[in-house]
Sequence to fold (84 residues):
Amino acid sequence: MTESLGFAAATCTTLAFLPQVIYVWRRRSAEDISLAMYLIMLTGVVLWIAYGLRIRSVPLVAANVATLALAGAVLAGKLRFRKR
Fold:
């Protein structure tokens, strides 16, 4: 039951990034996205992955690896589509 709860929570919080990824890449713009927020977020996600590995929590690691990919895609869009 506890693992199922963890996977459900992980799925919701990870998928929350998907609309932002789609939005940024379809518009080819991330002007309104905070670079600092995403850099801090990605740092936190990497730390969560390290923590999850230390305590051997599959839901924690899996969710944060997926979140790293999605938040990384937003950050990549932010850097790629910035106005020069």
Notes: The two ends are 51 Å apart (CA to CA). The chain has a mean pLDDT of 91.
